[in-house]
Specification:
binds FE2/S2 (inorganic) cluster; 4 strands; 44% helix; 2 domains; elongated
Length: 152
């Protein structure tokens, strides 16, 4: 199942992050399963516990199934000072999830992250690869509704 990815990389430890990224990006639920961890461990001859440690160290990886749209809200100081706490509260309310959880319909996963590098537009969030800045509670609601509408 992972052979097509392994084929692209020599079995060396320095390829671990690249392989993990590719496995996660190719999984419809954008996560790395225990089965994948074991397969990578076997291929690179690395203990699964070490791989798990890497996965939990980097916030861009997930060991839990996630939704189609991954929301990452920045909570670094410039965004916090511009009200990211209100934005996270709004997202929690409209999605009915806590941080780290996925909506029942598997459409959205809510995460927080550190600076996204666009502090001039604080508060900022990313949804998958798209960046949204100058957020307000109304703007966030409109973005989520638009994404939900695209699913119908
Ligand atoms: S602090 Fe939020 S984008 Fe930089």
């Amino acid at each position: 199942m992972y052979e097509s990815i392994f084929k692209k990389y020599t079995p060396e430890r320095e390829n671990l992050i690249y392989i993990l990224h590719e496995i996660q990006d190719n999984h419809p639920q954008q996560y790395i399963s225990e089965e994948a961890i074991n397969a990578v461990g076997k291929y690179l001859r690395i203990a699964p516990s070490h791989i798990f440690g890497v996965l939990t160290f980097y916030t861009m990886f997930s060991t839990k199934p996630r939704g189609k749209h991954i929301i990452r809200l920045c909570e670094s100081p410039p965004c916090f000072l511009k009200g990211s706490d209100k934005i996270i509260a709004k997202l929690r309310e409209i999605l009915n999830v806590r941080v780290g959880e996925t909506t029942i319909d598997n459409l959205f996963t809510l995460e927080i992250c550190a600076c996204l590098g666009v502090c001039g537009n604080a508060p900022v969030m990313m949804i998958n690869e798209d960046v949204y800045g100058d957020l307000t509670e109304d703007k966030v609601e409109a973005i989520i509704n638009k994404l939900k509408g695209e699913e119908k």
